[in-house]
Amino acid sequence: MGIDRFIGIDLAWAQSGARTKPNETGVAAIDTHGVVIECGWTRGLEETMSWLARTAVDGSTLAFVDAPLVVDNPAGQRPCEREVGRRYGRWKVSANSTNQSSPRRAGVLLRERLEESGWSYDDGRGGPPTGGLVFSECYPYTTLVGAAELGYDQERPTYKRRPARVQTAQWRAVRAAECDRLIGHMTGLATADPPFLLSSHPVSRQLLSEPSPQKAADYKHREDLIDALLCAWTAALWYRHGLARCQVLGADSSLPPGQAPTIIAPARLEQRRDGETRPIEGNQPLDGPSPVASRH
């Protein structure tokens, strides 16, 4: 057994209404060599489920989803979301609050659909899976500041929300330039462990050949794909290194194993609780060379 396909989904959190077209969801899949097998966009849960059915390898796929998947709190913020701010706030990363009154809960619906289709939700508290069709929750911003390979040692990149120091009139140009720098950082993952080859698919290769657009809709289109690719690489990192390189936010839940609302996040030593390290290792080596921003 084993996992040999890693999928990233940057899910549009809101469901469409009867007259509303769904927002785009970024989707990406990579293999153990870091080759991008497929990537692009879907609209709505039906398209996303169809894409997954075509792309996943039965019995050996791990999907990481950027969206709240388990929401069991009536009000307030999920514990895993509070931990994002506590562990990554110094890097200007926090998370929005999600509860059972939140209107944007497409992640919960996706989890239910996946479970009906034979996938298993994994909260990560037992370490990475060894096989199956498995999915978990992640948050790309924690990857950007938690994975040292990406080089964001001081704070997260400003490719989403305008910082106060940037004037509104300049923001689109600044954002596009920052996005191009982020893409440059992602190319460095070609020699990471696990590797990631941004130029290995025609769609992801366009991120390198075309400058980031300034028009809002075009920029969001690109941003969704970037986040999906980051989610896929985070899944590979979790499988490869487990709790040696990642932490499970929300791990103190009293719910049974595999059922807690958690976020699996790459972590530097100083981002862990009291600098803790965990002895649980990942799986066998993969083939290849060894203002505060909030979620959505």
From TrEMBL:
Origin: domain of life: Bacteria
Residue span of region Disordered: 257-296
Biased composition (Basic and acidic residues): 269-279
Protein name as catalogued: DUF429 domain-containing protein
